[in-house]
Known about the structure:
The complex is a heterodimer of chains A (157) and B (749). With 157 residues, chain A is mostly helical. Helix content of chain A is 36%, strand content 3%. Chain A contains 7 helices and 1 strand. In chain A, helix 3 crosses helix 7 and helix 5 crosses helix 7. Chain B contains 20 helices and 28 strands. In chain B, strands 11-12-9-19-16-17-18 form a 7-stranded mixed β-sheet. In chain B, strands 1-2-3-4-5 form a 5-stranded mixed β-sheet, sandwiched between helices. In chain B, strands 14-22-21-20-15 form a 5-stranded mixed β-sheet, sandwiched between helices. In chain B, strand 7 (203-206) and strand 8 (211-214) form a beta hairpin. In chain B, helix 3 runs parallel beside helix 6 (162-190), helix 13 (418-429) packs parallel to helix 14 (454-466) and helix 16 packs parallel to helix 20 (723-735). The radius of gyration of chain B is 27 Å and the shape is globular. The relative contact order of chain B is 0.10. Chains A and B meet through helix 1 and strand 1 of A and helix 5, strand 11, helix 10, helix 13 and helix 14 of B.
Amino acid sequence: MHKYTLARPLVLTLALALAACGSDPEPPVEQIVVREPGAPVAAPSEAATSDGAAADPAAAGKAAFAACAACHSIEPGGASGVGPNLAGVVGRKAGTLAGFAYSDAMKGSGITWSEAELDAFIANPAAKVPGTSMAAGAVSDEAKRAAIIAYLTGITG
Amino acid sequence: MDNADNPKPQRSRAAKWTRRGFIGAGVLTGGALLIGVGVRPGNPVGKLGPIVANGEGEQLINSWLKIDANNVATAIVPHCEMGQGAHSALAQMLADELDADWSMVRVMQAPADGNYIVTDTARLFVAPGTVDAPDWLEPTWNGLFTNIGRLADAMITGGSSSVRSTGQHTMRIAGAAARHMLVAAAAKSWGVPASEITTANSMLSHAASGKSAPYAEFAAAAAEQDMPQTPPLKQPKAYRLMGTDAPRLDIPSKVDGSASFGIDAVVPDQQLSYAAVRRVPVPGTRVTSMKAEQAEGMPGVLQILNMGDFIAVVADGYWQAQQALNLITAEYSEPESTIRTSDDQYARFTAALDEAGDDGGDKAASNGDAVEAFGSAATKVEVEYRAPYLAHSPLEPMNATVWVRDGKCDVWTSTQVPLMARTAAAKATGLSTDDVTIHHPLLGGGFGRRLETDYVTMAARIGAATGYPVKMIWSREEDTQKGLFRCADISRFKGGLDQNGKLVAYNNVFTQRHDPPGSFDCAFYDIPNKSIRVAEAELLLPFASLRSVDHGQQGFFIESFIDEAAGAAGKDPVEFRLGMLGQSPRHKAVLEKVAAMADWGNTPEGHGKGVALVESFGTIVAEVVEVDMTSGSPRLVTVWCAADPGFAVNPDGFRNQMEGGIVYGLTAALYGEISLKDGAVEQSNFHDYKMLRMNECPAIAVEIINGDHVTLGGAGEPGLPPVAPALANAIFAATGKRLREMPFAKQFA
């Protein structure tokens, strides 16, 4: 039979009870309503359409790069994410950005990233560099690849 | 079941509890029987009946069991299923006492309702070691815990407690009581003595008259019988299902893909929108400005919300929301804490430990005079260990689906604490808890992360802003960087050995004490002078329990130190430990068992074997790791595990949990590290927060000792704590290199 201590459960009761409470209702500081669910899209976004691409290749590249941005930063000097930072990638030797843990395949690829090499790699990363860690993100659309590469060319490291 | 060998109830908490407990039954006009066991008076029939038994005219009182017209028995389980097998194990315990046919048993998740609080778990969490209150105080004590349970929303799955608390003290009684009532009903109908009726495989039989019937036939009549307050429970030799590898009830749905997890939630008849979120990078800071013009123009975007502590984009699809969120830039306020890097964090610990010195800080445990004994010791061991922050990284990232409308809120989410989730959603929306409904399906991993409700609050705030149904999903990066974490810590030891190599002084101080109580100690070792102290220090990252909680780092600290003490004494690590286990026969048996399993004393060239012994969550576990160091970095060969959980209700499930704990613990031992830079978490995804891969996984052998069938231990967590120290000790045995900091792999790069 154990000795029981009344002080401890009561103190912890309070802690548990407090832990159970969240904050009071806290509304948004800013709320930007673009449209309601199910409502038609008002006007196509310029950057995201092919018309926009024709008018402004850099904007098209930026929009197309959104898919890449989940893993790759393009902020000069910024940290790498799941993938290496791509600021200044055009002209860089593959697998050489300091601080990023490249696959052995990439480190040993011997590639220097020209526009053509980038195009081939983005079209099918695993075919261009078998063993690369880049398991997702292939861009099959040739125009999109060109736009992305044009966009990257403009961002120096 | 033959009760002849069991004339009176075993003295278990279960029996004691229900003496003051309240057991009720209700007749179901649909031919189903509902049995309830609770620990308090009251009549929640009207409220619970429609929720757990959907037939017309059903009656219900605190229900844990229903039997339907097809003779299917359904256990209504208050704990959640996150892969640990609790649903199935608890049903197995109820079904054994019921003498049910396992193929006719189902399990149902109890709803998030105050009537399903797990009072027993509340006790375990709030006042461990106090459960054996004297009989005269029990009613008051019991009532106190019920009130605490309600106040604290104690419907909790954690602490490796489901089987040892709710299973042992509620589900078994529910099954036994139901069986008793079925027998009574059949005896009355058949005009024979109840004592002549036997039960097996969900059937009632009377040998002399040759009569027999399925349970379903007497379900309605059984509900009208007197409810036994202390039904006799089976002794182990009468167990039919407990102690067997009864097939788990949740496996088929996980194989065929029909199992539904929180992230699979759909809102019936409603279009769902999706939210991606980005919390502030440094805990406690605020968004001071947000630039979202680009995101506004992205396809599918519905709303952009600056919530102050996070930014959310709501869109038609999750991918669209996340893509738009990636384009938003923001400025943040200055953090209050001056901790910016991991070095800063460790410096905070070091300062607190320096200040505590040899005798300062909060005394956590002590006997004898450790300072004096250290001063006069023949051999001294002064060492310091450290462990980093860890993220839980469940496969299913944090998510919640919320629909707030017309003064009501529905939440679909994976949670270990459904009632706390309800309270969190109520607070976030300004509604009362009665207006909030929690739907909590299976969890794609919990590991303690889902004991927290921060993500439910976030989703509820988004839902309150939109007014339409939204599913919020955290990206893997968000899940790795912005949640709550296992604490980092430093622990210092001053150990002293006498002339004979006996450990006579043990002086230990560290900075982080969370749960469970006593996890900082190794009380099973006979050490005459001991002082264990806590010198509290600030943590930058918010804390959440992570599988095995403080035992995770403490197991590493304590069992590494014991190994170093053995080395200083010039003794074999197993022999040294056995020498301190004179008062702990169960621990001794477990250690001897694992040494025999591992062929301790024989090790291939270039390999090393290390041992560790930890008791956690009521289960005693010893593990031996064999590591191959011939390549210069550790390759895991084999882990042998011997465990005494009292009694393993489902040995296969128990072994699974030991294996899972070992793999999760090896991940932390080799790779686990959340580090800080500029006040934020550096790691982001599985490329830099690695898991143990299949090709790195050692062979694992588990053996079970059933040492006490009344007071059970847990399964979900106890496999983890010994594995990191056993690996560090094995690496030392192979190389002479002593690892005093987790994780290990980078120290061989």
